Target: Glutamate synthase [NADPH] small chain
Amino acid sequence: MAADPRGFLKFSRQNPERRPVQVRLRDWKEVYKESDLSEQVVQAQRCMDCGIPFCHRGCPLGNLIPEWNELVGRDRWASATERLHATNNFPEFTGRLCPAPCETACVLALNRDAVTIEYIEKSISEVAFAHDWVKPIKATHQTGHNVAIVGSGPAGLAAAQQLVRAGHAVTVFERADRIGGLLRYGIPEFKMEKAILDRRLGQLTEEGIEFRPNTTIGIDLTLDQLKADYDAVVLALGSTRPRLAELPGSDGHGILPAMDFLPHATRALHDRSFTPPVTATDKRVVILGGGDTGADCLGTVLRQGASEVVQLEIMPRPADSRPETAPWPMYPPLFRISSAHEEGGDRMFARETVRFELDSSGQVVALVMAEVALDEDGKLQRVANSEERIEADLVLLAMGFVGPDLSMFDLEQRPTVSGRGTISVDEHFRTSTEGVFAAGDARRGQSLIVWAIAEGRSVAHHVDAYLMGNSDLGCPVAPDSAALAIM
Ligand SMILES: Cc1cc2nc3c(=O)[nH]c(=O)nc-3n(C[C@H](O)[C@H](O)[C@H](O)COP(=O)(O)OP(=O)(O)OC[C@H]3O[C@@H](n4cnc5c(N)ncnc54)[C@H](O)[C@@H]3O)c2cc1C
Model:
């Protein structure tokens, strides 16, 4: 029963507040102000506890949203913490970073503003950590089996936590120097401070997970060695190969994939002895790609002191309101203003890059672009005589990712890949190799943290069943899941 059955009639949605732009541009701290808990109690009371909570289906994790909304609405934060963690290993990540498909599926969103589900989720997580309610949950027995997980992003970490709690000995191998995958070196500090990640890693370590950073499987250890030493292997390698701009001049200096830039910016904040090879200070920057990665580049270059920034997107500007092609409760393509977009830079839509101009030393100096428009078949066509030139000292490619990097595996050890370049699995997340499973972006293709956690939980269920004959671990998604959610 909703905490206040008439709450949605009495209270309006209050969005979480961001710190003033001029203040936050001077630091790297999270852009949102601290949560006012009494306001969150009111906001949770807007949840109607609908007969059919579509928010459940909007969320790949099947989060028990009306249940924890009701508990927060009654000021029962400890119980809300328990319900939240029942389906989500890392709500402090999704509470900050998820595009919240649950909110676009909220029944209230049919004719009013949705419940602030994501912010309530974040508030519950923060209250839980502040009260030390997030304790290690140690397995009550050991199965005698061991599992290797390759990749320490949200998919690998969720799988590891589920499996260690089920009593398996779990080792996570990570090629980077620190654990976390894109949570560590992709997502900038202003979206999630790394202390939030480290806090959760403390719990995982205490639960018994062994972490082996600086270890590339395929180089430091072969996949065959893992298969010999472990009863099961999970490949949670992410989708790390960037889509590149193969255009005249694209091999110039100063043109680089976003993930050759963002990790250095974050590393420099935590390691004073590290000097990033490239920064945007006093540079004219062009970002190719209008998505989340592009926005993360934007917020980063603005904080580094770029003199001018333009973000180009090849698709036309999305609509301001839900288009007919994406009716409720689907996740609609909308014109969104992220925190970085509030902070500066220009955005241009329907622009295709034609070529880069380089100086005699091979350094990029400008980019030539052209306008594009959708034709009757929905294909992008270049508009005649629409070429424009913009000067640029740094061009960041944020145009997406094309699949996991399997290049370090010997050919005969490589799992079968799909036509999309992702690792193929059967309905049990098993690859073509006996005892080897795959999950997360490596399997699904470039996606979201919430999907990575859902896949990590699901692959853990199937690994546990493979080792034990059956499994009590939850399994929120199947490999062919689409749910109502995006990507
Ligand atoms: C810049 C950026 C910003 C993003 N922002 C958001 C956001 O705000 N919200 C959101 O929901 N999603 C966001 N995403 C997407 C999200 O981060 C990913 O969907 C998610 O991290 C995928 O999780 P994963 O565990 O499958 O892979 P990853 O997080 O990519 O982790 C894979 C890990 O495997 C390691 N690895 C790969 N090969 C090997 C090997 N051979 N040996 C050892 N280790 C290996 C990699 O080093 C990496 O650490 C963003 C993505 C990017 C690039």
